[in-house]
């Protein structure tokens, strides 16, 4: 994935002036934070959607799933467009789509229009990689690396910012007021991008592989459907297994299409580079574990006392449990660039995975007090923040500047699928631990899920350590 030096030199950009950089950095971080927070608005509002619009909880769940799906599909497409000469226009048009979608969620329209709006909001998730591309092109190398790490972190902790605010607005002003928050902040992000985002370097070109995008969309739709519709596995296991086979087949077809395309959506050959492949594997398995613990803690906090455990928290108060996640995630994101001067990125990934595993262990043995949930969420946030900040460094170390957006876009697709599967696995384990005639799982089911999460983070740690050993051998061979 070393790329052509000549291709990169033709698209070389001069760093922006120092005064402009001071405006550019907060703008990039703000846009990444907004699109992540807005996409996560579906999580705390699922119950409100079901009651306000008179649909089932399963249907209301699609307000989250459809945003993840559109984001997963849009990310590689936008990443490819962001590698070309029209990156600024791509960013502005995408944000305009997100603003339009936000308006649809606020207007008193039927449920189908709300889903359409949420799908449009999810498209914004594809902008995170483009923000990284802008930072790498227009900031000095050291400054750009730290900003890219920060963008990666805020794209994670954005959920922790949006969740309690949306829940509070839903309680005070209803569903549409909560979605109104998304309209306000996305409009502000569009204005920020229009004023601050510079043009892409000259000499680059980008074409979108439409066929590859369609096949990838179909495969991801099936993956997210199978991850989100847990009843399908319990009631129609043969159908679910058949759809899983189709999803795998579609992904294989997509890989063949990308290998044969002269302008692939994702450079599959580059993705096979050991560093990139290892990083994506760590992201996939680690993403499953990270989102599993996030799901377990928030669900445990909202379980009523009548179940024999839990705290019966309202949606808003449960959202406050995410504050330690966001705060310590941000702290880890700020500390990681400094740690990179002494510790390699793969080792930072391994260390962060160990921290997340510690969060699982803490939750497994200590969850009888609300303070213990806050502690576990804080440990999770610190681990996720460090992991997210170190991940771009592993991939971009072997990626030419012109391919920054595309390379990171694929990593974010992997992350989205991992997060979706983490949520699904958590629900599946808890469903298995729910006895006949009971609404809530046994407390022991949470311990089982936590132990499964420790296993996932152990795999992530070993994968990251393998990456570290490969890098050490490569550096000694120079």
From TrEMBL:
Query: What start-end ranges are recorded for coiled-coil regions in this protein?
Result: none
Q: Which compartments is it annotated to reside in?
A: Cell membrane
One Gene Ontology term, aspect cellular component: plasma membrane
> A Gene Ontology molecular-function term?
transmembrane transporter activity
**Which residues belong to any copy of the Major facilitator superfamily (MFS) profile domain?**
21-467
- Signal sequence region: none
Taxonomically, what lineage is the organism?
Bacteria, Bacillati, Actinomycetota, Actinomycetes, Streptosporangiales
Residue ranges crossing the lipid bilayer per the database entry: 21-42, 62-79, 91-113, 119-135, 147-170, 176-194, 206-226, 238-257, 278-297, 309-335, 347-367, 373-398, 410-433, 445-468
Tell me where it mainly resides: membrane
- Organism for this UniProt entry: Nonomuraea fuscirosea
Q: Which UniProt keywords apply?
A: Membrane, Transmembrane, Transmembrane helix
Keyword Membrane found: yes
Q: How does it sit in the membrane?
A: Multi-pass membrane protein
Q: Which domain of life is it from?
A: Bacteria
Q: What is this protein called?
A: MFS transporter
């Amino acid at each position: 994935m070393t790329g052509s030096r000549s291709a990169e030199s033709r698209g070389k950009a001069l760093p922006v002036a120092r005064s402009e950089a001071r405006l550019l950095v907060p703008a990039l971080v703000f846009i990444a934070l907004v699109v992540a927070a807005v996409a996560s608005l579906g999580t705390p509002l699922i119950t409100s959607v079901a009651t306000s619009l008179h649909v089932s909880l399963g249907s209301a769940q699609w307000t989250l799933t459809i945003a993840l799906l559109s984001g997963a599909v849009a990310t590689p497409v936008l990443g490819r467009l962001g590698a070309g000469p029209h990156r600024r226009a791509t960013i502005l048009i995408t944000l305009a789509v997100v603003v339009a979608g936000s308006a649809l969620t606020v207007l008193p329209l039927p449920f189908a229009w709300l889903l359409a709006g949420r799908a449009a909001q999810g498209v914004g998730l594809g902008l995170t990689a483009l923000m990284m591309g802008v930072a790498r092109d227009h900031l000095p190398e050291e400054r750009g690396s730290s900003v890219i790490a920060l963008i990666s972190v805020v794209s994670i902790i954005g959920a922790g910012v949006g969740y309690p605010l949306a829940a509070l607005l839903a309680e005070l002003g209803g569903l549409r007021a909560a979605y109104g928050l998304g309209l306000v902040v996305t409009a502000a992000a569009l204005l920020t991008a229009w004023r601050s985002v510079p043009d892409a370097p000259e000499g680059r070109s980008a074409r979108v592989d439409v066929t590859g995008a369609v096949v990838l969309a179909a495969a991801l739709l099936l993956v997210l459907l199978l991850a989100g519709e847990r009843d399908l596995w319990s009631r129609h296991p043969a159908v679910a297994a058949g759809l899983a086979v189709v999803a795998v087949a579609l992904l294989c077809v997509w890989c063949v299409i990308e290998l044969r395309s002269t302008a692939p959506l994702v450079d599959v050959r580059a993705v096979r580079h050991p560093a990139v492949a290892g990083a994506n594997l760590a992201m996939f398995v680690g993403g499953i574990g990270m989102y599993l613990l996030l799901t377990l803690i928030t669900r445990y906090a909202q379980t009523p006392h009548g179940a024999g455990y839990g705290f019966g928290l309202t949606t808003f108060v449960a959202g406050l449990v995410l504050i330690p996640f966001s705060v310590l995630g941000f702290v880890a994101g700020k500390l990681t660039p400094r740690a990179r001067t002494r510790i390699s990125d793969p080792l930072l990934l391994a260390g962060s995975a160990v921290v997340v595993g510690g969060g699982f262990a803490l939750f497994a043995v200590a969850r009888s007090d609300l303070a213990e949930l806050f502690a576990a969420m804080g440990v999770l946030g610190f681990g996720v923040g460090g992991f997210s900040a170190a991940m771009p460094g592993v991939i971009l170390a072997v990626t030419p500047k012109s391919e920054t957006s595309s390379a990171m876009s694929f990593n974010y697709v992997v992350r989205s699928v991992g997060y979706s599967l983490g949520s699904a696995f958590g629900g599946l384990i808890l469903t298995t631990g729910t006895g006949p005639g009971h609404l809530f799982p046994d407390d022991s089911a949470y311990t089982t899920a936590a132990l499964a999460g420790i296993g996932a983070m152990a795999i992530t740690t070993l994968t990251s350590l393998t990456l570290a050993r490969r890098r050490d051998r490569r550096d000694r061979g120079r």
